[in-house]
Amino acid sequence: MKLYLQYSCLVVKRFKYSRLTWVVLLALAAVQGILYSQGLSVRPSRETAMDAFGRGEYNRALDEFELLLEIYSFPLYKYYSAVCLVNMNSDPEKAIEYLDEALSYSGGTEIIPDDAWFYLGRARQLAGSFPEATIAYETFREKAGRKKARGMNVAGYLKECGELTGSLGPDKTSGRYAVAGSSDNVAEKQFPVKGEVPAAYDSLLS
Description:
Elements: H1 2-41, H2 46-54, H3 58-71, H4 75-87, H5 92-105, H6 115-126, H7 130-144, H8 146-151, H9 154-162, H10 199-204
Helix pairs in contact: 2-3, 3-4, 4-5, 4-6, 5-6, 6-7, 7-9
């Protein structure tokens, strides 16, 4: 009888320990699931970036596009990042770098809009590179046409470049200074519709 009671107690203890082990394992699995889902929720997406861009939330859009660039070095993301910087009157040197790379590595495709040259002109003007800005503005007018150039106030910016005005000053040609929102001097940006983005891009991000 005594042996039977001892055996019964041992079985009960093992059952308790086994049950506790399962509870701990299930709790760990739940925590891992939560962390995994949180990791997925903060994964950058083109849709989030484009939505912020369309609302004029350029600071947020820039953050999203630059996160995307850490994963996919697509010329289109560099273009949008540069447009955000120009619209914020911020870090024109970085905007120039993005646009130079976007225009150089787009492979002659139409994925990068013609107004990349306009924003390159704006970035160069903000950086105080007036002759280079003039070249970019004139290239934009040649590619996009005079009507669109008038809508983007290219003539006004060319006049400013001739007068050596419109730069941020030597102390603000690099670094992020402006807050979110569109610049008073930049024409409203009309970004490409989704259909202009290659299907390969869409298949990579949700």
